[in-house]
Structure formats: structure tokens, C-alpha cells
Write a structure and sequence with these properties.
Length: about 170
Amino acid sequence: MVVNPASLNPTATSDGTSADLSTRLAFLKQVPIFQDIGDESWLASLAEHLEEAPFPAGQTILHQGEAGHLLYLLLSGKVQVHLDGFPIAQLEAGAFFGEMALFDSQPRSASVTALEDSRCLLLTQAQIDQAIQANPAIALNIIRVLTARVRSLNRLFGACEDVFISW
């Protein structure tokens, strides 16, 4: 589930400085994991406390096999998720990545590289834990997105299997 980038407000000023609080809040409301969260004051507080990081095109943001301690919310730009160099998905503004390592404490299962200049809001393990405790709907939203990703991968690998079997 990805937010339509055209529907998002710009998240950084033209000089590259961080997005203001109202822009961050508007952005978070459109990110699938924070949709339908009733407590707007809580979401505003979260928006205020998130770190923002720029990633130039070509930079690998996450490396497969490394420890993961952050969840990334893609404010702007486009990234590619890849496993052993094989492209799996492209994500655009409104998507998130890096969540699996937060939940299972295992190394990163894939790498993510910026395809164009990108900006992310960063959630720590503590922040996502607090978010889920304050708003359990966030966990359900994450599960929905993860399920959609697994189904997509199943289709992708099923198609690959069909190709190899027909050889």
C-alpha cells in the first residue's frame, strides 16, 4: 500500500531544510501505518520528535545482513529494495521500510538504495513500541502492509518458479 506522491505536500523547503511540524503531521496522516489514528495530538507529538535524514541518489540506506534499529518513512524521493542484488520493489513517498528488523531483532533481510535524492523520517525501536502501545491500530496497519508485501513476493517468486519449471 503506497500513498500517491502527488497527494503529499512537499516535505522540505527549497533549500533542503527540514519540513515544518504541520507538513510532517499532514504527511504522517497519509502514511498507511498511521491512517485512522484517532489521537491527533499524539501523532503531532510524534511528528515533532522524529529525526529527518537526507539520502542522495545512489546511496544505500540499509544493507542486507546488518542490524536494524530504525523504521524509515519515505518523505520524498524513490528507493529500491533489493535482495542479493535482485530488485524486489520500488517505494515512493508515503511508503515505509526497515520494520522487519525492529519486530524480530534479526539482521536486515534486504538492502534499500535511493534511486533519486530522498528524505526520510526515522522512527526508533522505542518510538514504534510507544506508538503501538498508544494506538494498537498501528500494529494492525503494519500487519496489513506486511501481508500485502508477502503476497506480492509470493506472486513474484511463483512467476520465477514457473519460468524455471518450463525450461
